Write a sequence for this structure.
């Protein structure tokens, strides 16, 4: 028997090694067979991909309604008209996302901390935070928006804004801070009690233990679900348009409703997807960096 | 290697199967060759025997809620309101009496979605335009519409005498409406107009002072100011834009084979004075409203 495949990994039979090793005919035969199998696998994969593509292409383009579908959903002319207006509207989405996102993170964290405070004296605070999250997590966002955007101005309070964007943004913050508070709370409760116990035994106060030991671990654990909520918020910023403000999707709808063509919607959809992908990559990178830092000294 | 051929054989079999399925299952246009079926060029409008969606009945679409003064009590089937009356008059002209007309709820966006339609024609204050004709077929116009501005009584907007006076105000209109087109193309206000999903929301915003004035078509303006927002008034109407007057038309599927028959019916109703009589009965006379220049 020759060496097993596992021993001489980096050398194939072709290279003549300087240690006088000559691969056996059986090994040469085995390697040739493996190469042939690899080639065949690649060919089969390529063929099946081609066939699948061809079938999809044929089914879609040979369907009787395709010319009209193309005209209605993929019209270059309307894409050109729509893109600048959709991007104008997107500014509103982005402004709302940044401002509301920051407010939601802060408020959500405060709510989560309020819910996880210990000690009987904090009972009213805990109860209030629990009631808040229960209510606003359950209330459909669109109803919350209608109530805030059209209900608050109807009160005719002096000094309270009637600006639909500000009001709509507040409604988003109300609902999303409830979601995010629950995410943070799950993170805080997932930190093992021994961590707090160790921190307290080192002489840290309750507040310090929370600030320096529990929260950093909790936040790190919930980055992926937080991102989920952030992407969801980004798409829901468009609902503020219920009060007449024009966001990206609404700008698309205005053109679509005017000329009965759906292409602007497709453009707006692609713009949103293009916005979400870099966000996801960015958080993946942050998460990976945090993992690297945690795993200093190498993973076991 | 006999074994190694298996994936290849499998792949080729699958490919053949898939291609067969693709070619065989490609949906074909269903042609309902009922009586009275004819090519789009030559149409036989045999009374009561048109190639309709549901045989023997005429299916008419409109949005829900159906607003006054076009419909009354959100009930299109009662024959009350201008568009309900027009729909029944057209149906009668085509040889379908009241019992043979079925109403179908069709949201505005569905009226022009490509694909098979669930209605024979849709009546929903939809204005005829060249761009829209690329997506749907229209009958000839059954109503010449003017756009109007409404504002709260005593407000700055209510004192507007010209289009220039409107330019500095915060204006609103409904999405997909020609009111919005007039707002964007004729008024061209300094600040971005508010665009609403429904006129109901525009009314709320007007009451709350979130917009100074809203644009709607004239009959709707009269209805809002007389019945819904009583502290609002019609500030003025716009002169007809462009060469032809703006008209509401019945919406049909682009491939509908009854477009010619429906158009002929509307034309007849216009000629014999039926449309004018229905207008007089259901819509307020617009003579007294000043025209904004």
């Amino acid at each position: 028997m020759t060496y097993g495949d596992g021993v001489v990994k980096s050398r194939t039979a072709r290279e003549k090694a300087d240690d006088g090793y000559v691969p056996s005919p059986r090994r040469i035969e085995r390697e040739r067979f493996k190469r042939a199998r690899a080639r065949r696998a690649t060919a089969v994969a390529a063929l099946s991909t081609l066939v699948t593509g061809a079938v999809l292409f044929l089914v879609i383009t040979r369907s009787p309604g395709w010319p009209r579908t193309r005209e209605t959903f993929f019209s270059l002319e309307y894409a050109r008209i729509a893109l600048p207006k959709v991007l104008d509207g997107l500014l509103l989405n982005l402004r709302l996302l940044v401002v509301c996102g920051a407010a939601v993170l802060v408020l959500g964290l405060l709510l989560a901390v309020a819910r996880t405070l210990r000690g009987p004296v904090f009972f009213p605070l805990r109860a209030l935070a629990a009631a808040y999250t229960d209510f606003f997590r359950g209330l459909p966002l669109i109803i919350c928006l209608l109530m805030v955007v059209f209900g608050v101005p109807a009160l005719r309070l002096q000094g309270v804004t009637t600006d639909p964007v500000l009001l709509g943004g507040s409604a988003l913050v109300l609902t999303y801070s409830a979601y995010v508070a629950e995410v943070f709370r799950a993170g805080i409760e997932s930190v093992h009690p021994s961590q707090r116990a160790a921190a307290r035994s080192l002489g840290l106060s309750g507040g310090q233990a929370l600030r320096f030991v529990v929260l950093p671990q909790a936040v790190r654990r919930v980055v992926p679900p937080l991102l989920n909520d952030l992407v969801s918020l980004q798409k829901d910023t468009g609902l503020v348009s219920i009060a007449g403000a024009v966001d990206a999707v609404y700008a698309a709808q205005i053109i679509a409703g005017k000329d009965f063509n759906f292409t602007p919607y497709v453009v707006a959809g692609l713009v949103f997807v293009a916005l979400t992908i870099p966000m996801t990559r960015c958080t993946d990178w942050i998460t990976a960096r945090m993992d690297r830092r945690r795993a200093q000294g190498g993973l076991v | 290697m006999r074994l190694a051929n298996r994936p290849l054989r499998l792949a080729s079999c699958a490919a053949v199967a898939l291609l067969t399925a693709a070619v065989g299952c490609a949906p074909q246009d269903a042609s309902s060759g009922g009586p009275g079926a004819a090519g789009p060029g030559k149409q036989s409008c045999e009374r009561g025997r048109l190639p309709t969606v549901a045989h023997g009945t005429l299916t008419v679409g409109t949005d829900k809620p159906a607003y006054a003064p076009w419909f009354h009590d959100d009930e299109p089937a009662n024959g009350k309101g201008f568009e309900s009356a027009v729909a029944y008059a057209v149906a009668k002209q085509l040889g379908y009496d009241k019992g043979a007309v079925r109403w179908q709820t069709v949201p505005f966006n569905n009226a022009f979605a490509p694909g098979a339609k669930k209605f024979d024609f849709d009546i929903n204050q939809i204005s005829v335009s060249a761009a829209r004709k690329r997506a749907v077929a229209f009958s000839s116009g059954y109503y010449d519409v003017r756009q109007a501005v409404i504002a709260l009584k005593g407000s700055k907007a209510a004192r507007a005498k010209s289009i220039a006076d409107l330019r500095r105000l915060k204006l609103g209109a409904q999405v997909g409406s020609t009111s919005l087109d007039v707002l964007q193309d004729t008024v061209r206000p300094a600040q971005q107009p508010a665009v609403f999903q429904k006129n109901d929301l525009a009314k709320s915003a007007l009451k709350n002072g979130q917009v100074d004035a809203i644009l709607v078509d004239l009959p709707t303006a009269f209805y809002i100011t007389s019945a819904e927002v009583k502290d609002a008034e019609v500030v003025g109407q716009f002169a007809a834009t462009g060469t032809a007057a703006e008209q509401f038309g019945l919406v049909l599927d682009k491939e509908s084979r009854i477009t010619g028959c429906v158009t002929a019916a509307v034309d007849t109703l216009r000629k014999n004075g039926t449309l004018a009589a229905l207008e007089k009965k259901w819509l307020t006379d617009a003579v007294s409203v000043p025209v904004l220049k």
The interface with chain B takes residues 36-37, 40, 44, 47-48, 51-52, 54-55, 58-59, 62-65, 68-69, 71-72, 150, 153-154, 162-164, 241-246, 250, 253-254, 256-262 of chain A (CB under 8 Å). Residues 1-9 of chain A have pLDDT under 50 and may be disordered. The CA atoms of residues 252 and 264 of chain A lie 5 Å apart.
